[in-house]
Amino acid sequence: MSTTVKGIIAREKGAEVELTDIVIPEPGPNDVIVKVKSCGVCHTDLGYRNGDIEDAFPFLLGHESAAVVETVGEDVTHVKEGDYVILNWRAVCGECRACKKGEPKYCFNTFNASKSMTLTDGTELTPALGIGSFAEKTLVHERQCTKVNPEADPAAVGLLGCGIMAGLGAAVNTGEISYGESVAVFGLGGVGMAAVAGAKLAGAGKIIAVDIDERKTEWAKGLGATHTINSKDMSVEEVAEAVRELTDGFGTDVAIDAVGIMPTFQQAFYSRDHAGRMVMVGVPNLTDKIDLPAIDFYSRGGSLRPAWYGDCLPERDFPAYTQLFENGQLPLDKFVTERIPLDAVEDAFETMKKGNVLRSVVVL
Description:
It is a single chain. Helix 4 packs parallel to helix 5 and helix 7 runs parallel beside helix 8. The protein has two domains: 3-147 and 331-363, Medium-chain alcohol dehydrogenases, catalytic domain (Quinone Oxidoreductase, Chain A, domain 1, Alpha-Beta Complex); 168-308, NAD(P)-binding Rossmann-like Domain (Rossmann fold), CATH 3.40.50. The protein is of the alpha/beta class. The longest helix has 13 residues, at 314-326. The model has no long low-confidence stretch (mean pLDDT 96). Helix 8 (262-271) links the parallel strand 14 and strand 15 (272-280). The strands form three sheets. Strands 3, 5, 6, 9, 10, 17 and 18 form a seven-stranded mixed β-sheet that branches. Strands 13-12-11-14-15-16 form a six-stranded parallel β-sheet, sandwiched between helices. Strands 7-2-1-4-8 form a five-stranded mixed β-sheet, with no helix packed on it. It has helices at 43-49, 97-100, 154-157, 163-174, 190-201, 214-221, 236-245, 262-271, 294-300, 314-326, 345-353; strands at residues 3-10, 18-24, 31-40, 59-60, 64-72, 84-87, 118-119, 126-127, 137-141, 145-147, 182-186, 206-211, 227-230, 252-257, 272-280, 303-306, 338-340, 360-363.
């Protein structure tokens, strides 16, 4: 039997989102219906709303969530009714060429629900990142559910489902920061702040936080930044020189671009020490191109690494970071700037664009 609930959709490119009825079908054999407890307002959802990611409108938005499993398909073994979970969009298949090479973080065949959710007139919805959790309930594959400590605050740990995990993973997994190394993070939105927190967890000796907003550089200090640079009105070379001045004239061991635009990409690239590592975790738009002299790419050595979902493995990382939060070692609650109702998502997009929050979180 199908279920009708309220959810937030983007009906067409650039239009304001709508709170409307959505229909969830009875789960397929390996699907589950989850009752959503929280959902972070992520820039990726705004990208779907604006048509910057794909054109498969209408979208059921939302993907950064904690939830409780409510109904399971007949063949489900991974979770059971009542389990408290974080939803993920990398449900590792174990069978694709990446998984078989021992690189499941690059899984090419991630699982999604076998059936489509719809509007009441039968129009099929495209769930954001295969999840669609700006809704009272949603339908996902069982492997998109990662069990965590049920005592953890859903508004905080649900953020591990996307942006915060991307930043943490960019530092810990992709950047492979070692104890005592120096790190610079460029762009202090939710992902960049998480990269700062990840660098602290990894034991970085010097953490330089760079942004054009003085409020954000101050916030970064509370998450582990040892030094800050306000890069407003500074050229790429001026930013790189400021980083070198803080690192004995050499540049950092690791530089993380958490924005994905050419100014921050170039700042990160040129702020590295020779043979330093650069990580790009900010998502570029569809028309951006990397603009660097080839000789600079060649002569500086080191590595340039994209971080896709922070190179995470949800089954390994979500429970571990939830435990660190519960132990007081990872302040996930500091990322929750405001808690809002489901019908306030459009307003939250505007607040996000103004840079006034790390995360607005829908709490149901």
